[in-house]
UniProtKB/TrEMBL annotation:
Domain of life: Bacteria
Domain (YprB ribonuclease H-like): residue spans on this chain: 85-235
Name of the protein: YprB ribonuclease H-like domain-containing protein
GO molecular function: nucleic acid binding
Source species of the chain: Desulfatibacillum alkenivorans DSM 16219
Annotated InterPro entries: RNaseH-like_sf (IPR012337), RNaseH_sf (IPR036397), YprB_RNase_H-like_dom (IPR038720)
SUPFAM superfamilies linked to this entry: Ribonuclease H-like (SSF53098)
Amino acid sequence: MLQRTFMHIQGIGEKTEKRIWSKGIATWQDFLDWPGPVFSPGRDRLIRAALEESLLHLDDPAYFKKLLPSNQSWRMYRRFKGKTAFLDIETSGLDQDMHEITVIGVYDGQKVFSYVNGFNLPDFEIDIAEYDMVITFNGAMFDLPFIRRSFPSITLPEGHIDLMHALRKLGYRGGLKKIEKDLGISRGEDIDGLGGYEAVLLWRAWQNGDKAALDRLIAYNTADIVNLKPLMELAYDRLSSQALAPDAL
């Protein structure tokens, strides 16, 4: 979908992008090879220059994150899927100045990595550098700022898809757990019904000597990140189909 995208070019919105597709120009290369005018000669030159620049940055998620509207960042997913981390944090509270990260979960699509405060949390700063892109739910507002506050020298992946925006574009509202239920995605009995407040209580229980509470907190965090993948796949497929549907062109 990324190489069918024209909305990262200044002055092109959804309607203009659909006009381009409706002419039979499906990809960047199609536009570059198009023998006749698409718009005015001057505008065509500007678009061609932007597309040539895009091809040079095809493996640079930061380039497209900067140019795409936040509710269109989902278009990057398939291109950078192989080096993507699904990410979620748990904290001792909501205030970045007063509270701390308790658990960071990372899922590469096959394996889960849990980073726990007091154990291996510092390893996260090194390990996250292996990825090109992160996928979160409301991470632009919460997870990533909290991480940057907690790791002042960290270099996070330049690419980021905040799945909340893509799901809202599909009409899904509310928090992650509500959307999971709306889509029939289930969690284990031990963690079903838990939310952010309960995650704080589980950490406090662990601090007071309840080892099972930490195991449950990690399981809760793991469900958060593992469930992001099918949600991302669903959002990508549905939004792609909507964008490219014949009656939408």
